[in-house]
């Protein structure tokens, strides 16, 4: 690895072989035969298929999908068998889920990765592909600890079970006697693990919505405009009239040109509160900075909020021009926040969105759930942001309480740029294991070594110093790396 380029790339095959070397892949005996009332029907429909007629892999999909739907789920209208090989967010060949739109990944039961009957499916590259898809689903269903996938060329099928715990990812590999055995096993194993349920919106909002993300404590949904001010009256169990006050404030800097403005609705689904995030968003509700969202909807009780605009997640692979705007928008947004004495504390790729228009694109910093404001002077708090964003001074000392600093956000911004440039390197991290503790684990030591590499790099060291010294103009120069990408 050259210190001036800093990061390399890891192929799917290398990621799979690495797990194997670490002893985190176990090959089991044949999966047990599971009794199912529709087993005979499924077996019959699969046996009627004619593999010799499949000239290409794509020819397999509609026939196998039809057999699985008709054989196992014919009487279950809420279970769909979907071709997802060209899906926006997920490229497994076939997915079994309750939705076939933006909600698919949040309701996914299991998926199938198919190879042509003349292709050997059980290779490190194809197994690594399954592993890659496991990580994608895990990100969307963080409460789930076990996921199931099937890898098959129709003649030969393997079931893969991914277990996620504090020790990382462990894969159990099961040979299957038939594809029918595998499908029934995947269904019965996954159904008990599907825990996340999508919320139902109240009567003040348009019932149609799209899921943007599901976090540990919240749902992010896109919905249509609410009334400017609404009061919902209902009768309680004690026959008392209860009023819930809703407040709508049309956006100014993120105004839509369409007839029906859409906004992002964040709903908590546990005992947590959005009071801190609402307070932070109100601080810059009328700000002139286009890189910050606008609070447009609140409801008493601090259990939900709405912000504009709706965008799309920032991902690696954008054009050089757009990537430069991502970096510049992020740094300028942080400069504005810090001038307001607000520390975001969770700057990472997933907390940046792109708002595209006909002639331009703008990056907006979202998610202020753990943001910190110096409204009552400096004070010590616990870190509560994303694992990859841990301030290094906490990881190095095992400290639990600290006073947040603008430099924390700026250091995290350097990681964002590196993530855009070298995504596979960051995919290697089991970020959930990174923690501030007296005894640093392997992942914590890896992120600390990453920071040492950055600081000592002849290229990236200058940005490390700029982040430490809060030199925003120098950090803007990170966008120059995308001039030739």
Written account of the structure:
The radius of gyration is 24 Å and the shape is globular. The two termini are 19 Å apart. It has 3 domains: 12-191; 210-308, no CATH class; 312-482, Orthogonal Bundle (Transferase(Phosphotransferase), domain 1), CATH 1.10.510.10. It has 485 residues and is α+β, with helices and mostly antiparallel strands. β17 and β18 form a beta hairpin. A 7-stranded mixed β-sheet has the order 1-7-6-5-4-3-2, with helices on both faces. A 7-stranded antiparallel β-sheet has the order 8-9-12-14-13-11-10, with helices on one face. Strands 15-17-18 form a 3-stranded antiparallel β-sheet. It has helices at residues 12-21, 39-47, 60-72, 124-140, 179-191, 275-283, 320-339, 392-397, 406-421, 423-427, 442-456, 461-468, 472-476, and strands at residues 25-27, 80-83, 94-97, 110-114, 146-152, 157-165, 168-176, 210-214, 218-224, 229-235, 241-248, 262-268, 294-299, 304-308, 312-313, 342-343, 352-356, 361-365, 372-373, 381-382, 401-402. The chain is built from 13 helices and 21 strands.
In short:
The chain is of the alpha+beta class. The chain has 3 domains: 12-191; 210-308, no CATH class; 312-482, Transferase(Phosphotransferase) domain 1 (Transferase(Phosphotransferase), domain 1), CATH 1.10.510.10.
